[in-house]
Structure formats: structure tokens, C-alpha cells
Amino acid sequence: MDRPGFVLEDSNMTETPANRTIRTYNLFGEANDLPDVVHCETIAARSVLHEWEFAPHRHARLHQFLLIERGGGQATLEGRPHALRPMRVVNVPVGDVHGFTFKPGTQGWVVTVAAEMLEEVLTPSEGLRRVLAHAAVVRATPQMRVTMEQIFAEFAGRHFARAHILRALSGALIGLVARELAGNRRMPVGTVKSNLLQRFEALLEQHFLQHWTVSDYASALSITSTHLSRMARSATGHAASHLILERVIREARRNLVYTNLPISTIAYALGFNDPAYFSRVFCGATGVSPRSFRDKVHKAA
Q1: What is the C-alpha end-to-end distance of the chain, expressed in Å?
Q2: Element (DSSP H or E) covering residue 60
Q3: The CATH homologous superfamily of the domain defined by 195-300
Q4: What is d(CA 56, CA 20) in angstroms, rounded to the nearest whole number?
Q5: Does residue 188 carry a pLDDT above 60?
Q6: CA 119 to CA 74: how far, in whole Å?
């Protein structure tokens, strides 16, 4: 049920076994006005074109919800396998690496929400943003199914107030999924990220490849390094320096798991001038070398 003007565009160059990377898909024209409130399609619509299998990839500014009605298969979310069964919903946050293998004939829906729309409907004090930031497969409720059907029906039409109704229905779906995620994870919904922490995290996403220091981030936030570290530790239990390193290591792990690029190429792509130094940093953070980590993951797979 694709609509003209809302195309998932592959941002990578032609892929070969030698240069395989994690594919990143973007919303076509996302630098300008959003072409639609949401995007909707059935699981089968795109799966039949790809033999029911999608290699690990991520979406730069898109959040997805998949609801399995019949059939199933397996989802891989940030390297972890999850069984897919009827009446399960998959929450895929912006930027998380994910892949799917569906049983032929699987039926269900996919609702894709642009990050801007998600931010618009999420009230900080309600704590939904933190819950939805975790990729997961949870139980789908009958209410979610009904809401999905309503979204698809409205999406297909061109009636007056279509955009307003789509925003309202999408907001309801987001809330229902967040409620199930919170109950499943037993997370204290009342805990909310401070505005300062959110700004720090946004800067971290923009500059982690440039290896900004704590002082660099503090300066950009117009606070002292001590204040930033104290805030980070209070909110997450870790110092700001740990969060900065952890973001680089997480990207390294993704590339080691999902690509076959040489470790030296990964090191340079992550902003390291010396692959040997990258290996020492990775080993210090994880306890194993990049090569051992990749071998262990591939052996387990």
C-alpha cells in the first residue's frame, strides 16, 4: 500500500561482499516538509518482493511498529534474535539495527512514523520516550489491532481532516505500544529524562564520530564539565565520559556484527587514526579484541 512521494530511499552505494555495510534507509525528502503523517503497508506487500527476508538495516529518522496477525518468523533487534508469533508487536526505535525473516504468507501491518511526528505527540512528563527507545517484541492487544486497521483505513483515503485523524490514531497506537512495553519491562514510567540529558544525547549522536571530549560537550551545552558529569551519573549511573565511549563502542559492535568490513576500515570510519589504538580501546571497553568479538558472534550464529 505504498503511496507516491513516500519512498524509503537506500542511502548507501551499490553493495558488494567487499564493501558491505549496515544499510541505512531514509525518508525521501526528509530535509523538507514531511510528505505524509505516517506511512502504512502490509508486511506481505514488501516481503514478497524480498523473498520474505530483510537483512539487518536501520532507519535514520523513522520509528516503526509491526503487528503480526498470522504467520511469524524471526526478528533480529540490535543483534538479538526474537521469535515472531501471531498477535505480537515489534517496536523498532530510530537508528536501531533490525532485520526480519518472515514465514511465507505472514500477514500483518507496518506503521512507520517520522521522528519529528513522534516528538510532536510525546509529552516529556509522561515518560513514553524513554520506554519507546528500547527495541522489543511484546504482546499485541486487540485494541492495537483495531487501531492499526483504523490507521490503514484513514491512510488509504483522502477525506477532510485526514492528517489530524492520522495523528490522533498514531498517537493512540504509540501510547498502547508504550503501555505494553512499560508493563513488560516493569519500568518505572514516572522517570523522565531531563532536558539537559536529552540535549546531551542529541549532541552525542551528532558528534560521537568526531571524538568530542566531555569538555567539548559541556561547552556546547553552556555548562561546566563537572556539571555534565554529575548530571550524567545522576540520570544514568555512568559518567559522561563513559557514555561517550559507550556510544562509539556500540557503533563498533554493530559494524563488527553486521558487516564484513576489515577492522582497519571500521576503525577509520569511527574516527580513529590508528587501527591498533582502536583495538586497544575496544578491548578495554569489552574485554575482547574486535576480531575475537566478531569471531565469537559469527560462531554463535
Answers
A1: 34
A2: none
A3: Homeodomain-like (1.10.10.60)
A4: 11
A5: no
A6: 29
